[in-house]
Design a protein that fits this description.
Rossmann fold, 376 residues, Dehydroquinate synthase-like, alpha domain, single chain, two-stranded antiparallel ribbon, alpha/beta
Length: 376
């Protein structure tokens, strides 16, 4: 088992990220040890109950000490948060209780926000079951929900007591969900530098086949990188902002799409990363070879890299229509990183090189999006 120790100075708190194929079989044992005699309440992604392996480990939807979380960005909202609050309080929790999040990013974010706010703070264990959650959202303590105005605008920082990551769980993921997680992996590779980025390119076959040992190495390296960033800047007042590469563009696209399932978060991040690369290229900030390498990596994994390719199903967005009027500027303006002078963007300068540009005018970013769509 690979263990990554995260030390958060601001909260005088530390926790382990445990990564090992097959570790999910021991999750109850690890959680009981972490609970230290306190009451345990597990919040489980409802979709997992359709998978026999999870039914065997978690029990039925009506098992005691278990609450079902409805996944999907449309349900990562204050309404479901309120429902879970009342249901959790009905379980007789006290300040010594432990919440356990078993599921993808939506479940982890909701359970984390619940843990941050119930009884003014409960302990939390994250057991992410999607690639996106394993490499990103389960680590670092960001929790929250969406509002009608935009993505993740209501939330809190709340670090877990432990993170338990089993790459074999990814074998149960639908292809689209797995690919969406790869967008965060590629983003991390761009930020971390040539070693991880080239590892992704050289191990493309094993990653795409979901080889647990290959994935364990990739997840380990992504978590190592994020843990180092979080330890240096827990509250995102400086360096941690780089993890938002592609997210300002991506969050605006998600908001415009209406969180209806037609656009997954990772898909939006993939397109957002491409948009950030092109924005940098127009400024002469990134060499053509590096820009092309990033585009090639996104395409090699089958990720969407153009706005027009983003979205699927009966609610596929009409981007031409959505980009008309002031809706695009409004979506960008509700980004958490907007200030009086404008947006804060993470601009890639190369593989492992980046800069944070503050005060970028909303109109300039909106123009870049509209021009990019027109050029497709």
């Amino acid at each position: 088992m690979h263990v990554i120790r995260v030390v958060v100075k601001h909260q005088d708190h530390s926790y382990d990220i445990n990564i090992k194929p097959g570790i999910f079989k021991k999750w109850r044992e690890l959680v009981v040890e972490c609970a230290r005699g306190g009451k345990i309440l597990s919040l489980v992604d409802r979709n997992l109950m359709d998978i026999p392996a999870f039914q065997e480990e978690c029990g039925s939807a009506h098992s005691p000490g278990l609450l079902m979380v409805t996944p999907g960005e449309a349900r990562k909202n204050l309404a479901q948060y309120s429902e879970l609050c009342e249901a959790a309080l009905g379980q007789g929790l006290d300040r010594n209780s432990l919440l356990v999040a078993v599921g993808g990013g939506v479940t982890g974010d909701l359970a984390g926000f619940l843990a941050a706010t119930l009884l003014r703070g409960l302990r939390l264990v994250q057991i992410p079951t999607t690639l996106l959650a394993q490499v990103d959202s389960s680590v670092g303590g960001k929790t929250g929900v969406n509002s009608a105005a935009g993505k993740n605008l209501v939330g809190a920082f709340h670090q877990p007591e432990q993170v338990i990551i089993d790459p074999t769980l990814l074998l149960t993921l639908p292809d689209r969900e797995f690919l969406a997680g790869l967008a965060e992996v590629v983003k991390t590779g761009v930020l971390a530098g040539p070693e991880l980025f080239n590892q992704l390119r050289h191990n493309q076959d094993g990653i795409s086949r979901r080889d647990p040992e290959v994935l364990a190495q990739v997840i380990r390296d992504c978590c190592h990188f994020k843990a180092e960033v979080v330890m240096a800047d827990e509250r995102e007042t400086g360096k941690r902002a780089m993890l938002n590469l592609g997210h300002t563009f991506g969050h605006a696209l998600e908001t415009l799409a209406g969180f209806n399932g037609s656009v997954l978060h990772g898909e939006a991040v993939a397109v957002g990363t491409r948009l950030a690369v092109d924005f940098s290229r127009q400024q002469g900030g990134i060499a053509p070879e590096a820009a092309q390498a990033i585009r090639d990596c996104l395409q090699a994994f089958g990720l969407p890299d153009r706005i027009s390719r983003l979205g699927t199903g009966p609610f596929k967005p009409d981007w031409q229509e959505l980009f008309q009027g002031k809706g695009l500027e409004e979506a960008l303006g509700h980004d958490k990183k907007v200030g009086r002078q404008g947006l804060t963007l993470v601009i890639p300068k190369g593989i492992g090189e980046w800069e944070i540009q503050a005060g970028v005018a909303l109109a300039r970013v909106a123009e870049h999006l509209r021009n990019s769509l027109a050029a497709e």
